[in-house]
């Protein structure tokens, strides 16, 4: 697919439409809430310090650092089938350049459309673990968001797209340690995308036929040709916020388990928990638990259910630096995960069976009605320090009111969160 063709599809995005404005508002405040939570953590603050000390100290460096930290939290919104997480790239890249509300909305929405298109074409879930779809698409998300925010014509937006993807790869291995290159590469991808937009603005040109069928198929064994059907201008509506810090593969199981607790199941009386998930979701959540490894504590489903049962506030804990309690760790050993080919549907549905005093109680998630995204965001904001929560609420209100200064207000908040240490989440 020619880059011109892809960008032409995005031209229908109406930055003045109220439905799209509401979605972009929700995603912007959610991304900034993630940034606030991550900025106060050990690893998040180290990433931000790196960009402050090695960058130019400008808004572009701030955007790159913000991108890395938002994605680091594992609390940012995701499109499950494609494994695309566009918020960390689209929001910062658009914020630093957009001069008005309507342009900002279009820039963020376009970044999401490109992110999902490339992530789906490269194979989505099927591309894992060799190719990380979100990383593969990250430079393009930032490039398109920045280029549209800059007000570039379609031709230069297309050039920014191919310049950002030239030499890019979604292969990052499994870096360990703290700080981890897993998050640095997201910041660097955003930096590349933004600089690609600036290069396109300066007249530098790339290969508009770069995203060919052959090139795409070389990125992952599961990749196919990038086609117009992949490019959905309304893609942002399919990207959902996470209710708590967790690998997305296990969130439905956690919510199913929480629904049983709300119905009166006594955690102390639970003898065992059987969790049934689609086969593709099982490997991430059933790896051995390493309590000293942050990502392990976020992914391991047994520990996550133990947290839900005995330390629910820590479902909002981005840092994970404090040891978990003995009850939560012991509970993790009572959870067994099974692959179930019968669980189908978008979003990795889950069935949880709890044995309590010899009786089995069962819950399935998602249910017929999903939780209001606004309530999910409110809980996220409330977990932060009072001062940060107030700032986020002001930005949220400004978006709702259509205040023309809201982009500048959100940009100021992002710059403040990346330039100065932020208070930790109260749950951390």
Automatic annotation (TrEMBL):
Residues 33-218 form the MmgE/PrpD N-terminal domain. Pfam families: MmgE_PrpD_N. InterPro entries: MmgE/PrpD_sf, MmgE/PrpD_sf_1, MmgE/PrpD_sf_2, MmgE_PrpD_N. This is MmgE/PrpD family protein. It comes from Neorhizobium phenanthreniclasticum.
């Amino acid at each position: 697919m020619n880059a011109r063709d892809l960008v032409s599809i995005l031209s229908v995005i109406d930055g003045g439409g109220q439905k799209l404005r509401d979605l972009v508002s929700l995603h912007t405040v959610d991304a900034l809430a993630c940034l606030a939570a991550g900025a106060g953590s050990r690893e998040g603050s180290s990433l931000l310090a790196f960009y402050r000390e090695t960058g130019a100290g400008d808004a572009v460096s701030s955007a790159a650092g913000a991108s890395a930290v938002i994605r680091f939290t594992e609390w940012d919104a995701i499109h499950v089938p494609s494994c695309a997480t566009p918020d960390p790239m689209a929001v910062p890249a658009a914020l630093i350049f957009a001069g008005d509300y309507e342009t900002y909305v279009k820039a963020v929405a376009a970044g999401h459309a490109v992110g999902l298109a490339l992530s789906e074409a490269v194979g989505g879930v099927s591309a894992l673990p060799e190719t990380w779809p979100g990383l593969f698409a990250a430079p393009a998300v930032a490039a398109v968001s920045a280029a549209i925010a800059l007000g570039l014509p379609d031709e230069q937006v297309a050039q920014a797209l191919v310049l950002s993807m030239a030499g890019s790869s979604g292969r990052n291995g499994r870096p360990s340690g703290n700080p981890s290159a897993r998050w640095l590469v997201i910041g660097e991808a955003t930096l590349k995308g933004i600089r690609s937009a600036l290069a396109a603005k300066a007249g530098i040109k790339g290969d508009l036929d770069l995203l060919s069928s052959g090139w795409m198929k070389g990125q992952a064994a599961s990749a196919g040709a990038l086609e117009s059907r992949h490019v959905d201008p309304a893609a942002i509506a399919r990207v959902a916020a996470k209710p708590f810090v967790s690998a997305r593969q296990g969130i439905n199981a956690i919510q199913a388990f929480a629904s049983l607790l709300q119905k009166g199941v006594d955690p102390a009386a639970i003898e065992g928990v059987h969790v049934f998930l689609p086969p593709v979701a099982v490997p991430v959540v059933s790896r051995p638990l390493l309590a000293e490894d942050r990502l392990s504590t976020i992914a391991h489903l047994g520990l996550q259910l133990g947290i839900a049962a005995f330390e629910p506030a820590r479902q909002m804990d981005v840092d994970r630096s404090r040891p978990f309690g003995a009850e939560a760790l012991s509970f993790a050993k009572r959870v067994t995960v099974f692959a179930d080919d019968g669980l189908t549907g978008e979003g990795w549905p889950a069935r949880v069976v709890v044995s309590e005093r010899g009786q089995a109680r069962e819950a399935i998630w998602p249910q017929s009605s999903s939780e209001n995204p606004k309530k999910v965001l409110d809980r996220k904001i409330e977990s932060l320090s009072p001062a940060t929560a107030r700032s986020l609420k002001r930005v949220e209100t400004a978006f709702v009111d259509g205040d023309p200064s809201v982009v500048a207000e959100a940009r100021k908040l992002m710059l403040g969160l990346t330039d100065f240490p932020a208070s930790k989440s109260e749950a951390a």
